[in-house]
Amino acid sequence: MISGRTRTTLLSLIAGCLALVSTGASAEQSPAEDSHLKEVIAGDHRSADNTARDAYRHPYETLTFFGIKPDMTVVEIYPGRGWYTEILAPYLKDSGTFYAAQRPSDPSYAPGQRAVEAFDQKMKDAPELYGNVKRTTLTNEGDMELSEPADLVLTFRNTHSLMRRGAEDATFTAMFNALKPGGVLGVVQHRGDPDVEQDPKGGKGYVTEDYVIAIAEKAGFELAEKSEINANPKDTKDYDKGVWTLPPSLTLGDEDREKYMAIGESDRMTLKFVKPAS
Prior knowledge:
This is Methyltransferase. By secondary structure, the protein is of the alpha/beta class. The protein has two domains: 1-30; 33-274, Vaccinia Virus protein VP39 (Rossmann fold). The chain is 40% helix and 17% strand. The chain has a seven-stranded mixed sheet. Helix 10 (168-178) packs across helix 11 (209-219). The longest helix has 26 residues, at 4-29. The radius of gyration is 22 Å and the shape is globular. The protein starts with a helix and ends with a strand.
């Protein structure tokens, strides 16, 4: 017959063993910490303005969600002024390959042209960081030259701009063709209200998840996973001036500035797509 004290001891031992098994299983399911990526994100080469936006853009969590590794071939589509390039280029410099697929030069579109020029200057100013960046161009027709297939293609807050130019289908097809079978497309985009009819031109910067998923699936991608890493429930998405009402653009200037700063940057979807292996 087992005494009460012995029974209690046995139950404690069993509970402890179960806890260890559970902890081990959780550890196996969690992605390994990427200390190299953390070091790059914390690097003093990044500007103060850019690091201040980490609170909204969550670069470590976003890139690890997409499965980035330092030996990959990675393509960033339309890198703008280089916010993510500031992280991706140093991270991939020693073991991987990084392509920056910039928009074609277009003096008629001043904001885009200024971004391209700022990006070019950033590359020139720090060759020790960006000397290995491979430059290419992605046209509205979907033409893009790479010397090798990619493991990972990334596009951050670009889908509405593609829609404005009627280039979304061609661009998503180009991203599909750029990837190896089994390769990943990572999409971050200002997330629209699913109860509001989608503007096919993306005029206010917001796009619904279903709309983005449909574009990607039309190109051949399969949705692998979603994340709420970049969600912002404070974003009401009903501004007359669109997403640019919020920081960092603050297109209304000082009008209701505190209100919009309190909301923060936009609510964003974070979608991981896969190119089928066969």
